[in-house]
Structure formats: structure tokens, C-alpha cells
Amino acid sequence: MSAVATAGAGELRGLMVDQLKKRGLEFDPAIEAAFRAVPREAFVPNVPLEQVYAGDVIVTKRDAGGDPISSSSEVGIMVAMARLLDVAPGQRILEIGAGTGYNAAVLARLVGEHGTVTTVDIDAELAALAREHLAVAGFDRVAVITADGWNGNVTNAPYDRIEVTASVADIAPDWIAQLSDGGKIVLPFVLLAGLQAVLGFRKDGTELASTSVIPGGFMRLRGPAGPEPEVRSIDGFFVQLAEGAVDRNGVLASLLREEPRLALAPPLGWEALILLALLHANVTVVRSERPGLAVGIFDPSGGLAFVEVAGTSTEGPRSRVTAFGSDAARSRLLSAIEELRTIRLADLHVVARPTGSDEPEGDVVVRRGSFTFAFRIARASG
Hints:
By secondary structure, this protein is of the alpha+beta class. It has two domains: about 5-215, Rossmann fold (3-Layer(aba) Sandwich); about 230-340, TATA-Binding Protein, CATH 3.30.310. The protein has eleven helices and 20 strands. The chain has helices at about 5, 10-20, 30-35, 50, 75-85, 100-110, 125-135, 175-180, 250-255, 270-280, 330-340; strands at about 60, 70, 90-95, 115-120, 145, 160-165, 180-190, 195-205, 205-215, 230-235, 235-240, 260-265, 285, 295-300, 305-310, 310-315, 315-325, 350-355, 365, 370-375. The strands form three sheets. It has a ten-stranded mixed β-sheet. Strands 10, 11, 12, 13, 14, 15, 16 and 17 form an eight-stranded antiparallel β-sheet that branches. A hairpin with a 5-residue loop joins β7 (about 180-190) and β8. The radius of gyration is 22 Å and the shape is globular. The protein starts with a helix and ends in a 5-residue tail after the last strand.
């Protein structure tokens, strides 16, 4: 029997943190202590301890069609978002999306006895279970509210920090109204064509300025303000177009039924794909027979090309470019990939202002219903 199979929950918890650190994930001391102390197994009962402390995402609820609608998030992204949130003892925290309650427990540990955590979930069943899990784990001070998280929770406002644990294409005005000036909000943001990145913002009056941008993706926010994306299923491909990209006369379907042309490109990780999606791409593609997301360029005049996150080929790590139709889309994609060699996600700065106010300027401006987002690449001078 393996050492993992015979280890207790506390030992496995420590091993999980140790493994995350070996993978290069950064921990602040308080965050490390919280993840070593909070018993994840209390929030996902009936899941084997080895699975609990593998640190992977654990789906906890599916809809009638079998699609996941709630989970205990992958622990690595929870750690990264906690670092962006920059929690201090005594602060007031609002979490949008209670899930199992595990993240709320970690936040409660970080704010200590003199801080408060309020977590909101639209699903009454999930909220009740989160409340039960928190009580079992000794975190019954957390306020669990059943409500539409898009509206925040004015009763316990104002908040020093807000963490959104479901992806959103916009920012709720109520969240910002309930956030103290100088406070921080962290959220998974849906970029063009559906790819996501986690954005950290600091509030300055009515404006939000980014503190960091990291890779990460979550299930979409449920409720009227979190509509599902328009994803088309075409002969084994699931395709989503960016806002403004139009497929007239079924060009996409015709292209995807052609014989593809394949080529190898330099290896691209998630950071590069996020930048590609933001700066150049207008389509994302998922193949039904293989996991992973591809990002690319759709030319309505008759071309499509997309690139996948790096895998291993006979020549070493490479990303695969798949092209259909005319060569224009492939040429544009390869030029964009070459440009990405000179920029990093850390070079990306974001400003968000209420839509209808003075519009922020940037290399890419994304206009959504409540807020307008300007993305700017800080390029080295000279």
C-alpha cells in the first residue's frame, strides 16, 4: 500500500501544499498556513482523501444535461487568487459564489476573529450545504446568503475585498458600490471569444485599475446577469466567435468540413493564448474528441486558423496550428504568434470605468453593459 493511501487528512493536506510549492506556485506565509490548516475534506464529504488532496477541481453539482454547474475549485488557482486579493486580518470580505464553502473558510482563516466573510450563492441547495460544511469545519462565523450574487450583499457592506469565483463578462455596479475606496476585487473575466483571465483591480473613485492579470478560468456566473455563451457545435467542433465577428452564409461550417492543413509553431502556454485572444483572435475552438482549447482567427471571406496550447511533438514542445480555407487567416495567426514573443501577461494593464463615462484608452477596448475595459500593453521604450 502506498504512503499516500495510508496517510491521514492532515498529512495529505501538507503534501498537497508541498507539491504546489514544488511546481513553482508562490505562497504568502498566511496563505500557506491557511491551506495547511483548513480541512478540504469537510467541504467535499464522501470524496476519497487521495482525490481531495490531489488539489484538482472536484465537480459537486451538474445540471439536468449533465454539465457541471458547481465545484470545489482547483487549489492552485485558489491560492493564486488569494494572493491577488491581498487579504489582511480584520478585513471585511464578500465572496460571490459560495460553492462548497471551502474558499470562504480559507478567507475566514485569513481575516481572523476580527474580520468578517460573507458568501453569496444563487443556488439554495448549495448555500445550505456550504453553511453545513462551514459549521462542521468550525467556520460558522461565515455568513452564507442565498441570493443572486450579481447584486452583492448590501447588508454587510462596505467590503475591503471582493472575490468572484465564477466567470463574468462584466462587473456588477453593486459590487463596486459596496467596495470601499482603495479596496480590491478579483474576478475571472471573459475575454473576447470566451477565453478567460483572472483580473485583480483596485478601486479609485469610480475607476478600477488592475493590480495583476493571471491565467485562470471558472464556470460562468449563474443568474440573469451571467448568460451562457453562444457556442456552436459543428461536426465535432465547438466554436465561439468574439463579439463583432459574424459568420454569414455558413462559412464556418463549410470550412470545418474541409481537409485541414497542419503546421507546428513555437510552444505557447496559457499566458500567450490569453494575449492572443485579447489582441488578435476572434474565435475559440474545442474539439469533441480531445481536451483543450484553441484560439484563432476567422476570416469571413473564407479562412480559419487556430493554435492550441503547447504539447510535445517529435521535435520537442510545440503548438499545433490548424488551418482551413484561404491562407490569409493562417498568415495573420503566425504573425500574431511571432509578436507574442516580445510581450508577457505581466505587461498587460487594465482600466475599467462605468460605461457611458469618459472611455479609457488602450490597445484593446472591450465595451460591456456596465463597464468598459481598456487593455494596454506596457512596451519597453527604445
